[in-house]
Structure formats: structure tokens, C-alpha cells
Amino acid sequence: MTDRANDTDLANDLRRIADAFERLAPARAPSARLDDADAFVWHADSAALSAVERISRVPIRLLQGIDRVRDILLDNTRRFADGLPANNALLWGARGMGKSSLVKAVHGAVNAARPKALALVEMHREDTPTLPRLLAELRGSTRRIIVFCDDLSFAAEDASYKSLKAILEGGIEGRPDNVLFYATSNRRHLMPREMVDNERSTAINPAEAVEEKVSLSDRFGLWLGFHGCSQDVYLAMIEGYVAHFGLKVRPAELRAEAIEWAATRGARSGRVAWQFVQDLAGRLGTKLDR
Fold first, then answer.
1. 226-272 tens-digit pLDDT
2. Domain residue spans of the chain
3. Which of 75, 127, 133, 148 is deepest in the core (most CB within 10 A)?
4. Cβ contacts of 162 within 8 Å, gap of 6 or more
5. What Cα–Cα distance (Å) separates residue 73 from each residue in 37, 91, 180?
6. Could you tell me which of 31, 29, 30, 51 has the C-alpha nearest to residue 39?
7. Are 179 and 123 in contact (CB under 8 A)?
8. Tens digits of per-residue pLDDT, 59-117?
9. Please, what sign has the CA dihedral across residues 279, 240, 73, 115?
């Protein structure tokens, strides 16, 4: 009887300690409502959305050298906003060429024409296993929503891509009609190339092994490729920014400095162009209002 009484007392003590810690813990912030803003960030740890009051993006007209993919994604997004069939989109390719910038710019362009037409919800790559919880939050909304994951890719030992496959296409519940999934990646198939190559040579059925790895990207109806830009396109990007922000610099001087900047970086891209414009504006003492 004594041992049983001691066990009961210990259990009661532990319960009181747990209750005390729970009272000391800060109250969980309520999730933002989808009508509160046009953009949100998904916090997997608290299963809550936080509203983004000011979205970091550039006007779609300033995105140079990606005209074809811009028009395709803009048309797909407009159809979705109109309640028509549209595809999940994977924007893949060269780094710094405007993949994530295009997603945010397209969202801004559609909402500029039709205020509140779309909500943009950003989720981090490491939180993709919680995508079913996010979709459960979004499923009942009357608003049309783009879930955006930047720099989506998976390591060789990461099996979470399998659950993402079922969520995008093929699962019994399916993707909600009011939700579309846009992702960016430097990899076309989201998986390390060397893993596919190794499995091709060691698997009993090489074709099946490769199919398993590339089938995730097949869940995206749109594959939009981004490639390195020429010097002319790079300079056009910079000239567009300079004109937009009203920076006062002589054309010959601008061209020479821009080419030197790219040479020191060893690359030409939209990101390099923007970094040059920020440096130029700083030297000129001009603020950039994005």
C-alpha cells in the first residue's frame, strides 16, 4: 500500500509541475485570418499563419529576359484567380534569374488588377511535411490561395518528398480546389543528380528507381526553365532599375561600372543586377523604395 500511495503522490506532483509550466508558457498567438492581408507566412511549429503587411517584391515590368515564362505563369495565375483550371508550377534553373521574384510579381500584378483576388502563403522547405495541416487550414476558405515554397529540393536521404507527391496529385483527398502550389528550385527534378545516377547503375530495375525520383516534379503541370542571361539582357535589367528609381548616372559610366561589377562577381543575373543597383544608389545617396 505504501508503494502505491507513493506512486500516486509522485504522479500528482508531476501533474502539478506540468500544469505550472503550462501556465508559465506564453499564450500561443492566434492564426491570422485569410482576409487580413494578401500574403502570409506559415509557421509550422505553431500551426499558424502570420500576415505580411509589406511584401518584398519588384514590379513585374522590371523583370527582364524572362518574357516567355513570365507570360505563361501570369496567364496560369489569372485563370486560377478566375476560378478556371490551372496547374501547379515548378520554376527551376539558374540561380538569381528571378524565379521567386516572378512568383511574387505575378501575385502582385493579379491583385493590382483585381484587389484581394489571391492570397500568397509562403512555407519554408523544411516545413513541407506539415503541408497537409496547412491545406486543412486553407481548404474551407472561400479565397483562392497560392502556396509558395522557395528553393525546394531534397537531399539523398530525405524521404519527405514521397508525402509531397501524394498531396500535390494522387492522394485520396486531393489538393483543395482553392489552392495552387508554386515552387522554385535550382534542380529540375528536385533531387540530387548523383543519386539518380548511382541508382541507375545499382538498382535491380534501374528504370523504376529513376522513375521514383523524378516523379515528384511530374506533379507540377508547368515546368518553367530559367537560364543564364546575356550581357545585353543584364544591362537591360540595370537600365530598367535605373530608370524606375530615377538614378542620375551617365549611360557610358553606368555601362562600364555594370560590366565591371559582373566581372568581379563572375556572373550575370537578375540578382547581380539588383545588387549593383543597390550599390549604385547607395553611392549616389538615393533611397530605393520597393
1. 998 999 999 999 999 999 999 999 999 999 999 999 999 999 999 99
2. 39-226, 231-284
3. 148
4. none
5. 22, 9, 12
6. 51
7. no
8. 999 998 899 999 999 999 999 999 999 999 999 988 889 999 999 999 999 999 999 99
9. positive
